[in-house]
C-alpha cells in the first residue's frame, strides 16, 4: 500500500509532458475548434452590428523663433521638443472645459475620444477625435484645435503672454474634415479568438480535472506499478452497425 501511495505521489508531481498535452488536444479537438470558431465568428459579427464610429483628424505645426541670433538648428531642436508639451497642453482641462462649454459635450467624453501625438523628429502634432457622427467629429476637432491655439496666444493684463513658450508658435496646417468610419473588425475578431482560446482552455481543464479514469495501459502500469496482462478491445460487429443482434 505504501508503494502504491508513493507511486501516486510521483505521478502527481510528474506534471504534464508534451506528449500528454498533445493527447489532450487530440482528445478534445472538436470542442476546442468549436469554441474558437464560435467566438471568432461572434467577434466578427459584433463588428458588423455595433454602432459605427467616425474619426476626424487634423494637424497642428509647432514653430519657434527666439527673436535673437540663435542658430536655426537650435530653434528647430527646441520646437521639436516643444511638440511634446503641445500634446499634453491639448489634453488639459484648460482646453477641454472651453470646448465643452462651446460644443455642449462633457469634458469626460472629450477626453475619452481625443487623441494627440507627434512623431519623433518633426514639428507636427496629429490630433484626432472619434464620434458617432462624422460631421460632429469634424466640428469638435476643429473647435479643439482652434481653442488650443487661441489659449496658447492669450495675453495677461500686463500685455505679456500667459504661455510664453507657446505664444504665436502654433498653427493649424491641416483642418479637420468629416470623420471617416473606423473599422473594428480586426480588433473584435481578435478579441473573439482570444476569448475562444480561454474558454476552450477552461473547458478542457475542467473536463480533465473531473475525469479520474485511466487513459492508457501505460498510465495504469506507471501509477499502480503492475503490468497489464490483457485488455478488452473496442470492437464493433458489422451486424450491430446495421441494427442486427
Strand residues, percent: 5-15%
Superfamily (CATH H level) name of the largest domain? EIF_2_alpha
Mean pLDDT: 81
Spatial extent as radius of gyration: 33 Å
- CATH fold call of the largest domain: Alpha-Beta Plaits
- The CA-CA distance between the termini, in Å, is 44 Å
What is the helical fraction, as a range of percent?
Answer: 55-70%
Helical segment tally? 10
**Shape label:** elongated
From the 3D coordinates, which CATH architecture of the largest domain would you assign? Answer: 2-Layer Sandwich
Summarize, please:
The protein is of the alpha+beta class. The chain has helices spanning 2-14, 18-27, 29-49, 72-90, 93-103, 107-113, 134-152, 185-210, 217-224, 238-241, and strands at 53-62, 114-118, 124-131, 170-174, 180-182.
Can you describe this structure?
By secondary structure, the chain is of the alpha+beta class. Helix content is 56%, strand content 13%. The protein has ten helices and five strands; from the N terminus they run αααβαααββαββααα. Strands 1, 2, 3, 4 and 5 form a five-stranded antiparallel β-sheet that branches. Helix 3 runs antiparallel to helix 8 (185-210). The longest helix is centred in the last third of the chain and has 26 residues, at 185-210. It is elongated and about 100 Å long.
